[in-house]
C-alpha cells in the first residue's frame, strides 16, 4: 500500500529531540532543516521533548537543548510538550489496538528472541511466538503490534520512494516495552496525530522506522503525514554523530557560526556579509529550498 502527502491541511511541522545528550551538529542540522521547511511554507513548528526513556536520559539535557535552540534564534509555536506527561494518550492508543485485535502481549525474553530469531534490518525479526497467546505459564511482558504481510511503500520528499516488508524485515514490533516504558514507535505516532503534525522533517537515521510508524497510523486509523528525511550527519569514520560517537555539543555562545555551518551542511552557503544570527536567518528564509539539500550522508 502506498502512503502519500496530505497537502490540503495547513503545514504543521515539529522537532522532537530526545534528551539523551546535548544538541550536536546532527540534531541541530535536523532542527534547522525542519524549521526552515515549516517557516518557508507558512507553517507552524512545534517542539516536543521525547523523554520516554529515563535510563538513557541525561539530567539537565532537556533544558540545555531548549536554551541552545533559543540562543540560536529558533521560535517555536505553542508550549513545549513532554512525552513523559502524555502517558494517558499512549494507554488509550494501546487499549484501542488491543480491542481491535491488532496488539498482543508477549512473554518472550530478549535471550529467547535472540536464540530463535534471524536478524532483520533493525535488530532481530520477532518470530511471532506469542502471536496467538503467550506460551503456557508465561505472563505478557511487552506489547507488540501485529504487522501485515506485504510491502509498505511511501514517497519521501528527499529520499524518494522507500519500501520495507515489515513482516520479513522487522516482525511484530514493541509498543510497550517489558520494562514498562512506552516504545518510541507508538508514542511518536500518537503525538504527531494528536498534535496535528502534517509534515515530518527529521534525520535519515529514522527512515528505517517510518514503515513501522505508518503501520501504527493505519492500525489506529489516523492520517499518514508527509515525510522528508534529511541527510545523515557522519564523522570522519562514517559513523552517525551521536553521544556514543562523542559528537561535540553545539556552543550557544557561537550561535551564528553554528547556524552557518548547519546551513552549509544542508547545501545552503550564506554569503560572508551575513554575519549576525538575524541576517543568517533572514537569508536562509529567503533562499531555502529542499532541492539544494543533499540526500546522502554529510561528513561533519
Ligand atoms: N526523538 C527522536 C530522536 O531524537 C526523533 C523522533 C522523530 O523525529 O520522529 O532521534
In words, what does this structure look like?
Residues 12-249 form the Glutamyl/glutaminyl-tRNA synthetase class Ib catalytic domain. A motif ('KMSKS' region) lies at residues 240-244. Zn(2+) binds at residues 106, 108, 126, 130. With 300 residues, the protein is of the alpha/beta class. The protein has one domain (12-299): HUPs (Rossmann fold). It is 32% helix and 17% strand. It contains 9 helices and 13 strands. The chain has helices at residues 25-40, 61-71, 87-99, 110-116, 166-169, 184-194, 210-220, 255-265, 277-287; strands spanning 2-3, 12-15, 44-49, 81-82, 103-106, 142-145, 151-156, 160-165, 173-176, 199-203, 226-230, 233-234, 298-299. A 3-stranded mixed β-sheet has the order 1-7-8. A 3-stranded parallel β-sheet has the order 2-3-4, with helices on one face. Strands 5-6-9 form a 3-stranded antiparallel β-sheet. α3 crosses α6 and α8 runs parallel beside α9. It is elongated. The two termini are 37 Å apart. The mean pLDDT is 95. Residues 16-18, 50, 188, 202, 206 line the site of glutamic acid (GLU).
Amino acid at each position: 500500500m502506498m502512503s502519500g502527502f496530505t497537502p490540503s491541511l495547513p503545514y504543521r511541522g515539529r522537532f522532537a529531540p530526545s534528551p539523551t545528550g546535548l544538541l550536536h551538529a546532527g540534531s541541530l542540522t535536523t532542527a534547522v532543516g525542519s524549521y526552515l521547511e515549516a517557516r518557508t511554507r507558512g507553517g507552524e513548528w512545534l517542539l516536543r521533548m521525547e523523554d520516554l526513556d529515563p535510563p538513557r536520559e541525561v539530567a539537565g539535557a532537556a533544558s540545555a537543548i531548549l536554551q541552545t535552540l533559543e540562543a540560536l534564534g529558533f521560535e517555536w509555536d505553542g508550549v513545549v510538550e513532554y512525552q513523559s506527561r502524555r502517558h494517558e494518550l499512549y494507554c488509550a492508543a494501546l487499549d484501542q489496538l488491543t480491542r481491535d485485535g491488532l496488539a498482543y502481549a508477549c512473554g518472550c525474553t530478549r535471550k529467547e528472541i535472540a536464540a530463535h530469531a534471524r536478524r532483520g534490518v533493525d535488530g532481530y525479526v520477532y518470530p511471532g511466538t506469542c502471536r496467538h497467546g503467550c506460551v503456557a505459564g508465561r505472563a505478557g511482558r511487552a506489547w507488540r503490534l501485529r504487522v501485515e504481510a506485504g510491502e509498505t511503500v511511501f514517497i519521501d520528499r528527499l529520499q524518494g520512494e522507500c519500501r520495507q516488508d515489515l513482516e520479513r524485515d522487522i516482525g511484530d514490533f514493541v509498543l510497550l516495552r517489558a520494562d514498562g516504558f512506552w516504545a518510541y514507535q507508538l508514542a511518536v505516532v500518537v503525538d504527531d496525530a494528536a498534535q496535528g503534525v502534517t509534515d515530518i522533517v527529521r534525520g535519515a537515521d529514522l527512515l528505517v522506522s517510518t514503515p513501522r510508524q505508518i503501520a501504527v497510523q493505519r492500525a489506529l486509523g489516523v492520517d499518514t503525514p508527509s515525510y522528508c528525511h534529511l541527510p545523515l550527519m557522519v564523522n570522519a569514520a562514517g559513523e552517525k554523530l551521536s553521544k556514543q560517537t562523542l559528537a561535540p555539543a553545539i556552543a550557544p555562545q557561537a550561535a551564528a557560526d553554528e547556524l552557518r555551518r548547519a546551513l552549509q551542511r544542508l547545501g545552503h552557503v550564506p554569503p560572508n556579509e551575513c554575519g549576525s544570527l538575524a541576517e543568517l536567518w533572514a537569508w536562509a528564509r529567503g533562499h531555502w529550498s529542499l532541492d539544494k539539500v543533499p540526500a546522502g550522508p554529510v561528513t561533519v
